[in-house]
Amino acid sequence: MQREELDAQLLEAHAEADTGALVRLYTLAGDQSEASGDIDAACFYLTHAFVFALESGYPQADPLNKRLADRGRAHRLSFDG
User: Fold this and answer.
1) Predicted structure pTM score
2) Coil vs helix vs strand at 76
3) Cβ atoms within 10 Å of 35's Cβ, excluding its own
4) What sign does the dihedral 3-8-14-20 (CA atoms) show?
5) CB within 8 A of 58, min separation 6: which ones?
6) Beta strand ranges found along 1-81 (DSSP E)
7) pLDDT tens for each residue of 8-63
8) Quick one: pLDDT at residue 79?
9) Distance (Å, rounded) from C-alpha 21 to C-alpha 60?
10) CB atoms within 10 A of CB 71
């Protein structure tokens, strides 16, 4: 997905308070930034995805937390029951 389209979809997801889309789109933005070698931007976007996933109880919180912890950007949390 092109950056402009991703930005537009992120704005729309915020306007609609669509948490699932926010998690997915911020993760995608993080993936794209990581692929281009911009780790700071990747962690910025992944942090947003993680916070939305965490607040909403989405299962993506665990792998997002691991990715951030692996980069030294978060403490590893336990999501066990």
Assistant:
1) 0.94
2) coil
3) 9
4) negative
5) 19, 20, 23, 52
6) none
7) 999 999 999 999 999 999 999 999 999 999 999 999 999 999 999 999 999 999 99
8) 83
9) 12
10) 14
